[in-house]
Write a structure and sequence with these properties.
By secondary structure, this protein is mainly beta. The chain is 13% helix and 40% strand.
Length: 304
């Protein structure tokens, strides 16, 4: 029998008992009638039923009356912070597998190169085709933003660059006339007009009268097995030039050469040799470390 059924039976029993006998009370208070007893019994039953409901409810919980539900936290979206460009590296590459590029090196004008106001120079980047599509002369290098330094708005590539190959990309520029720091951003553009692979040139324009190498003429003599390479170096004033040679096979020039000292503007010559019998096309450049930080010219030769 359930608790509710037992309580109802108790109430009926008490009502019947009171109606059968009306004994005198020993209290000085007014005797309680059957209605009062039934009312008290009913209140007891109601209290017991309420307590029973609370105890038997599986989801019952007790909260202070002054407790409010906790606020829902809202997280603000955080924008990604772009990394600062360093060392001429690519600022951004394409999301497409077809057109993508890796930065290899600054061939000329490393970041922070000091130039005279209005000085003309050639910036050359070496890039690797890291995509799956070949770059053709329908591709171009285009100015993106920053300081254009009198560069072309667009300049077509002059050769095909297959996936995995590297290419030197050069633009002729001119330093602004006002001293300060300047950065220009460039991109590659495919045949469909979509740009990718952002790279940049970063220079510092100083005061006038800085010593510089203004040109290098390279020539080759000899034959397969013993090539002689000559560089005629021209400067615009008195100063000291330091240099190294750069070869197409990627060999590192670890030789130490005497400083080339100019007492005034003029031309001096230096030579080197390459003893090779390997067949194929070859080239050699000279890198002017001081004062230009620039790679000049290219002497081309080959073995059968």
């Amino acid at each position: 029998m359930s608790i509710l059924s037992r309580l109802i039976s108790i109430i009926l029993f008490l009502a019947l008992a009171l109606s059968a006998c009306n004994l005198p009370s020993s209290s000085t208070q007014e005797p309680e009638g059957p209605g009062a007893v039934l009312t008290a019994a009913a209140q007891t039953v109601e209290a017991n039923l309420t307590q029973l409901a609370v105890q038997s409810s599986p989801t019952a919980s007790i909260l202070p009356t002054n407790t409010t539900a906790p606020a829902t936290a809202t997280l603000a979206a955080v924008s990604p912070v772009a990394a600062s460009p360093t060392g001429g590296a690519l600022v951004a590459t394409a999301t497409s597998d077809c057109d993508n590029a890796d930065f290899v090196t600054d061939v000329t004008i490393p970041d922070g190169t000091v130039l005279d106001p209005g000085e003309s120079f050639t910036k050359t980047w070496r890039l690797k085709n890291a995509g799956t599509c070949s770059w053709t002369p329908s591709y171009a290098v285009v100015f993106s933003n920053g300081d254009s330094m009198s560069g072309p708005a667009t300049q077509a590539l002059t050769t095909n660059v297959n996936p995995g190959q590297t290419v030197d990309i050069s633009v002729n520029l001119k330093a602004p006339s006002t001293p300060g720091n300047y950065t220009g951003y460039w991109k590659l553009r495919n045949a469909a007009g979509v740009t990718f692979a952002t790279f940049y040139v970063d220079i510092k324009v100083g005061g006038s009268g800085a010593f510089a190498v203004t040109g290098v003429n390279l020539s080759v003599s000899g034959a397969c097995g013993n090539f002689q390479i000559k560089a005629d170096i021209t400067t615009d004033s008195a100063g000291t030039v330091t240099y190294t040679w750069v070869r197409s096979d990627g060999a590192t020039d670890t030789n130490t050469y005497p400083d080339l000292v100019f007492d005034a503007a003029g031309t001096k010559s230096v030579t080197t040799s390459w003893s090779t019998t390997a067949s194929g096309n070859k080239w050699m450049d000279i890198y002017i470390d001081k004062p230009n930080h620039q790679q000049f010219g290219r002497a081309n030769f080959s073995c059968p």
